Structures are given as structure tokens and as C-alpha cells.
Amino acid sequence: MSVSNVAGSKNPNTSQRARRILSHRSHPKDHKRIAGVSLIATLGLILSACSSTTSSVNTTTSKTSAPPPPLVMESSQESSVNQTFNPFEANSASTTLGMNSLIYEPLLQFDPANTGKIYDWLATGYTWGSGGRSITFTIRQGVKWNNGAPFSAADVAYTYNLLKSNANLNTSGLPITGVTQSGNSVTLDFSSPQYDNLQAIASVYIVPKSIWSKIGNPATYADSDPVGTGPFVFSNYNASGITLKANPNYWQANHVPEVIFPTYASSSAAESALINGTATWEGNFIPGIQQSFGATSKNHLLYFAPVNTNAFFPNLNTFPTNQLAVRKAISLAINRTLIGKIGESGLESPVTNAGGLTLPAFSQYLTPAAKKLTINETSDPAAARKVLENAGWHLQNGFFYNSQGQELKLQISDPSNYSDYYSDDGLAVQELRAAGIDAVRVGDSDNGWYADIADGNFQLTQHWSLTSVNPYNLYDNWLGSNISSSAGNFERLNNSSVDAMLANVAAQSTTTGEAKALVPLEQFVANNYPIIPTVYGAAFMEANSTNYTNWPSPTNTYESGSPNAPTNEVVILHLRPRS
Question: How far is CA 207 from CA 72, 118, 122, 219, in A?
């Protein structure tokens, strides 16, 4: 079944910025609630081991100790910011910089570095019902909004009803058919079983009904003075960035009094801030970072957890990437080993399975059938040319032409300040041209790139995948026709057979069942190239532990370490001021 025959048109008029935006959730492996790892308990254990002079941020006015310094963090190189905090806007600076995830909170939090770990958050538990067609969350009591008003299950029900009635907000395409509240419980009903979709279900940022019910269009609401349940509140805005201060009404212990989000005009400016100690926490690809930062001080920490799969996304609605033979030739021509070794400075390994499953994170889902889906890790230009010749293309002056006389021209576009992707693209261009494809690299601005992806104005682009703790969400975000093109499905696949495959995966309640149900999707990716996997993507973390300790690490995998949303909240709440 060729993608070129089944990729229908989708509405391109919808508008994700961050080098590694993380949206990750998990799911239970039976019909009952799987107890989450309560962060309250986790933080309590840590607190009991700390010095008695260490106090939470809510009591940093203690006469016995001065407040710890602000945390300066950067997850996205933004040259300008606006005072807008709408948590449903995927392209806003507040989202890409990771501010919204410190103001608004979801029902559950998850750890992609340790895929079995679920943190209870605004929900203290959940139970599946109706064969996976409903889920009931128990909502945490005693939580307040940052304006002091009580948070309740009514706010949760209101938020999910917002998604149910506003497709522009429901970027994950949750098939919600009903929302009901009873006391401190909220039940969501779905049109199909959703056992393996807890990631998307529980990731929604909850907003206050008392405020949002009085606004106009929630998709365009600026939300300049945000009211959330998170550990921080908006403090200050100016041209050089935004500052958040600790929420005095927060329901957990928080030892960080202030977070500063500066703007950096370039990757070199962000790197300089990291090296000279101006920045505390960044999440960038920086060539040679192990020598320039990691080896220069015991307080300089690096952590690159492999958490997703990078890929080239071909536009299935645009010539020539709407041609199956072209997509297959691209996959054969590129050198994944060089992309990982040179473009990604050895920090990301080449994909080893044509199905795209993130390995080794999801190795327990790799069935014998999926293992047979081999992929070339080095360039094979002769095989690429053979595929094109068999499809009717012919070489002329070194490049291929079709029977209508159209040259096989291809633009690969990515932001020029994404130095690794831009380098990857340059490598790919050389390999594609050697295979007879007249490829060029196009450097774009951040904002221009995001707009082009959302609008479908591209031929081929490289992008990271959704970072999840369950492979269903990886494939759903890649291939689901219900996914907004501003949040996933960048190639614009619209295939009812694939949607049925995804629904079958979501309905599985065991790891064995899910692994078996994934095989048709893995085969579809391997044979139809709706996305072209390249390397296993890392969650980049560069941190300075001079002022704060208990950062994530390969031996302390409570989170991936990325400063992006939503993992940054979990990390910050684990940090402790250095005595």
C-alpha cells in the first residue's frame, strides 16, 4: 500500500518551537489504575535527608538563610518574547521556552528516561472503564490557583470540555465524547479504547473555569496575566526576557525562588552564557560540549538521555516527495552513521530499525517480525538510483528526470541556527546529489520554519519525534490523521487503514498485545516512508550545579534532564540549594 496512493489532503491552515520540545506520558498495562510515583513522597524523602537549614521557597524569608539565587534557563533560542502565556498555543515563546509548564499543570507527569515511572500530579489516581473507552481521574484536594482561589474537579472537567468543543485546542486529537464530574472525580469518555494513550490524555494543562469561561476565543486568548496551579507566577517582562517568581500558594515544596528566561539571538550567545556561568540550565546541541563545558568543572553536568527518534519528514502533498520511489531513494541515499557521528557530534546514534521504534528505550516492544525491518546505516547511492530507474526516472547530466521532463529537485529546509540539523542537511544534500537527486539545503528562521511546517510549505525537513514513554504515542504523533499539523503528522498523512492500526494499538492493555499490534505500523513506516528515520534523538541537558544540586543523570533518572516542557517542572521541584 503506497503512501502516494492514500495520502489525502488535510487542512494546512493551522499554525512547535524548541530544539527538543518534550511531551511525554505513559499508560497502564492492565484495566486498573497503576499507582503513580507520588512526587510528594519523593520530595518528602529527599527533604528528610537535607540539612535542617534548607527551607522551601515558600519560606525563604527565614532569618537563618538567604534565598538561593535565581535559576537561569534556556530551552529555545528566542530572539524576542511576548507577554502571552496561552497554554494551548504550541508556537508561543512561553511554550517553547518552557514557561507555561511552570505555570500550568497536567493531571500526571512522566519520565521518558525511565519509561515505567508515572508521577501523580493534579490527579492522585485513575481507573480505566468500559474496556478502555473511559477513564476516571481522582482530583487532588487542597490545591489553589496562584490567585488564591481553590482548584477543583470542576476546573478539570471544564478544561477537557474545552478540548471536546474546540478542535484548535485539541492538537493531540483526543476522541473525547463526554466529560462528567462527580465530587472530586472526573470521567472522560472516548469513542474508542485508549489504554495506550494516557500520555496525551493526562498531558493537558488545566485552566481555571472562573477565568476561561469568561473569555472569547480560547485559541487566540493572550493570557497575559496567567492564573495556574504551578510552582511559579509571572513576575516581569522586558525585551531581554521574562522572569517568573515562586507561587506562594503552591501545593508542593519548591526551593527555587525565581526562574529567568533570557532571550539569546544566536546559539553562540546561548553557549557563551552557559560557559561563563550566566546560564544555569540549557538544552542545546553544542558541538564539542564535552570538552568546552563537561570537562572544565565538577559542577558542569551533561546528560543526553536517548528518548526519541529523529526523522526527515517528506511533504506527502507536494512533488516530488509525494512519490514513493523518491522517498525510498532518499532513505537509501542518506548516511545515518555520518549524521550521528558528524552532524550530531557522536551524541546521537543511527537508527537501526526501519520501523522507527526508539531504541533501546522501547526494546521490549521489538518483536521478531519488527526486527526483520532492516535499514541502511550508511549511504547506498547505487541502490537509490536503481529504485528511481525502476520507477521510470532517467539520468540526464547527472540528475534524474521523469517522463514529463521534470527534474528531480529537492529542497531540505531547517532553521540555520539549529546547527546540528543544518549540518545533517548538508551531509544529506551531498549524498542525495551523488545518487542523482538535485538537492539543496535551505536555511530558515525559527519562526519561518514553524510557520512553513504548519502550513505545509516545504518539501523535506528534519524534525524530532514526540518524546513519550509509550510507542503508541510515537506512531500516533507521526501518522495519526487526527493530529494537528502544528503538533505532529508534519508529512500530512491521511490514511484510514493507518488510523485503524493506531486504534488497535491504543486498545491493547498489555505490553505483549501492544508490541504485536505495533508491527503493521512499523511495516508501514519501513515500506512506505511517510517519515524517514535518521538517528535516535537525545534530550540535551547542560547544567551548572554551583547553586543547585540533585540534577538528573544517568544514575539518577527521575527525569530526562531537558529544560523543555513539561519535564522542566519535575526537575526544578527536585532541585535543592547547595548548602
Answer: 26, 22, 12, 13
Residue 11 clears pLDDT 60, i.e. is over it: no
Sign of CA dihedral 322, 323, 324, 326: negative
For residue 246, the surrounding DSSP H or E stretch is: strand 241-246
Q: Name which of 102, 433, 34 is nearest 254 in CA terms.
A: 102
Neighbours of 223 (CB within 10 A): 25
Q: Is the Cα torsion angle 215, 221, 222, 228 positive or negative in sign?
A: positive
Please say whether the beta carbons of 336 and 379 come within 8 A: no
Q: What angle do CA 304, 308, 310 make, to 5 degrees?
A: 100
- For residues 533-544, one letter each, b for 16 or more C-beta atoms within 10 angstroms of the residue's C-beta and e for the rest, the string is bbbbbbbbbbbb
| Cα distance between residue 25 and residue 35, in whole Å | 14
Amino acid at position 561, single letter: G
State the DSSP string of 284-316: ---TTHIIIIITT-TTEEEEEEEEEEEEEEE-T
pLDDT band per the 50, 70, 90 thresholds, residue 207: very high
Residue 71: CA count within 13 A, CB half-sphere = 35
CA atoms of 398 and 539, how far apart (whole Å): 40
Q: Of 98, 61, 110, 51, give the one whose Cα is nearest residue 549.
A: 51
Ramachandran class of 241: left when φ > 0, alpha when ψ lies in -120 to 50, beta otherwise = left
pLDDT (tens digit per residue) in 336-367? 999 999 999 999 999 999 999 999 999 999 99
Per DSSP, the residues of 3-28 read HHHH-----------STT--------
SS3 442: strand
Q: For residue 62, give every residue at least 6 positions away whose Cβ sits within 8 Å of its Cβ, in sequence order, or none.
A: 55
Residue found by looking up cell 515500506 in the block: 527
Domains of the chain: 3-22+306-538 (3.10.105.10)
Q: Above pLDDT 70, what percent of the chain? A: 88
Give the span between the Cα atoms of 577 and 579, in whole angstroms.
Answer: 6
DSSP one-letter string for 106-169: -SEEE-TTSTT-EEE-SEEEEEEEGGGTEEEEEEPSS-B-TTSPBP-HHHHHHHHHHHHH-TTT
What is the H or E stretch that residue 45 is in? Answer: helix 39-49
